[in-house]
Please model this.
Amino acid sequence: MLVSDAPVKDLTAHSKPTPPPSDFLPHPDKFARRHIGPGPEEAAAMLQLLGYPTVEALVDDAVPAQIRLRRPLQLPAGRHEHEVLAALREIASQNQVFRSYIGMGYHDCFTPAVIQRTLLENPGWYTQYTPYQAEIAQGRLEALLNFQTMVIDLTALEVSNASLLDEATAAAEAMTMCHGLKDGRNVFFISARCHPQTIEVVRTRATALGIEVVVGDEQSFVFSEKVFGGMVQYPDTFGQVRDLSGFIERAHAAGALAVVSADLLSLTLLKPPGEFGADVAVGSAQRFGVPLGYGGPHAAYLATRDSFKRHMPGRIVGVSKDSRGRPALRLSLQTREQHNRREKATSNI
Model:
């Protein structure tokens, strides 16, 4: 062993702070490259087409001077994407997670890791450009078709959409659908045993459409010739399971339609709405492994009879054939206001 007589230098006395790992090993992918629009070449081409020498000159003409900020934004220095994700995880770790006892259509759930990893986190299901252009990925359309098939099986109705925002807005869409099917009637009944948020959203939508909403007891409600539909909760917001056949029979006898807002997971054991004679079934899919998410939104469903499919809100995925005769999935029906048939839209999603 060699021992030196030279004094040992204190390497910590005047050392500089250690740079972050990203300075030594920069991440090969840049967040800005993937998420921030055109580069200098594309910007120059667009400016040339518009006849402006610089972006500042374009802004001077396009943005009124009185609303422009005359100083740079006070922003911190940019960070790499993995640094931002680490910071977000640190913030999220401060959340305190408590058990929820609210119920009313929101229930915590356990998702087995094998399902989360191989199904929910499998990019083969969700690599489309946007959810509104699902044709780009057959994987997403297959997932939506599976969703529709599950809803049809559990509700015992003939056709399902894929999908709606949450249970309350699905109930409002069902009311609007029934109103269109029963022209000339203007009263909609909703059971007081429905979830309170469902009742409030239905009331809000009805106000804008000039529909009269009656909230009451479904067992004593008397249908008149002015009522176009009625809605009940199954199981109700207090957890009670009731036989709905009497209510639905009275609705049909008066020429009205019956809507059942059903817990989809409970239908794996309970008699489905279609077997009671319901015309429409709505509800939430949150029970199937979707986190509570501080109230949503969560995917909702709407199922109905085949004869009503042209009045359904949202979209329907169907099976077709491609140019070579092979099975292919497509959006079969989608009369929504952002599409080219918006004048016939049945939904305001």
Summary: The CA atoms of residues 45 and 107 lie 53 Å apart. The first strand starts at residue 159 and ends at 160. The chain has eleven helices and nine strands.
